[in-house]
């Protein structure tokens, strides 16, 4: 009987020692592919059933794993922090700084899956452990981002910081505002290599601040530096820069309109990116900036968009406008000073010949402009040409019937008809530009609707996959627990049979 009493009530130290040995044994079994799934399920079960007094022991076991361990071991040690945060919540508040240091030790890991697990753990700690200030996680992440020169550490710190800021419900806006200039200076630093991830952090911080206590001086240097990466050789940097500018357009409702004209012009020049994903992001950002109520005019936006889409059309319209300006200038001058590049009247005694030469010279002068327009709008240009020829024939008939009329009257009628024709051509071109812009806007709207529907479908699919993974983990954990209980019962039964 005394021996049975000793077995049934072991001292607490023995229980803690057994737990430590069990955790270390499971961590060692993670290195083997055959026992990986069972060891991971057992560790998850241990993390779910921990008591508050055993939290430090379990976190120490996770932190003691060094970089020489295999990748599955390093990854699952970080994933267990997520399991702890989701299952125990604010009970882990006294141990949050130690958990953050465990994540920071893994940021230099060369395996991207380990760094992704660090980002997930940062999100879970931010959303689940709300009893402590966010600065406990924010401060060390910012310090690592600014001072660590290792590329993997820079990438990991940037990804974790951006994910935590996006997931946090209550943020210290003042601390983020103080950190934004320090983070922004890294864009010009040659020692900082993870520029796409850094741009993601900048966008997350701007979105988190949300225009509260905004400082115009910060945006004065931040937006030009960010917009420089719209033309970067790295497509990830171009995409991240466009996303950061979209965050500015959405968050800074008061200050963003002041930069609308410059940002719209820059995005217009980069909207036809060769990478599809970047091109879609550019167009979404451009639409956000155009929706702002700023000081830029809609006429300049439509003109710049038409020029970027049709450079030949802009050149043609420029030539036509110059021609019309010249005609207007000549019509305002005195009659005696009008000149159509025709020889003096004393060289020809017939007024009809002089007028015919003037008409031919005008046609030659506008030949290049009409040729360019004919390539763009062949049907309507031919109609304009027919109307012009009919009007010229009519003017010649009138002049032949009235040869005694002065030369100045014929010259003024030709100049007015030429100005009228130019005005008609300009109106035709404007109508074509308007139609093209309407077609482009309708296509962009259809494309955006398609992208939104596809994104919603992907999100629903991801939620279903996560639900299946969660159910699979629960089932595997239950099976493991049932097997363990069965083994223990068989072991006890065998012992009893052996004693009997």
TrEMBL record:
Superkingdom of this protein's organism: Eukaryota
A Pfam family per the record: TOR1L1_N
Biased composition (Polar residues): 314-339, 390-400
Biased composition (Basic and acidic residues): 340-363
Gene3D superfamilies assigned to the protein according to its UniProt record, in alphabetical order: Leucine-rich Repeat Variant
InterPro entries: ARM-like, ARM-type_fold, TORTIFOLIA1/SINE1-2, TORTIFOLIA1/SINE1-2_N
Region feature (Disordered): 293-423
UniProt domain TORTIFOLIA1/SINE1-2 N-terminal: residue ranges: 18-291
Identification of the protein by name: Microtubule-associated protein TORTIFOLIA1
Upper lineage: Eukaryota, Viridiplantae, Streptophyta, Embryophyta, Tracheophyta
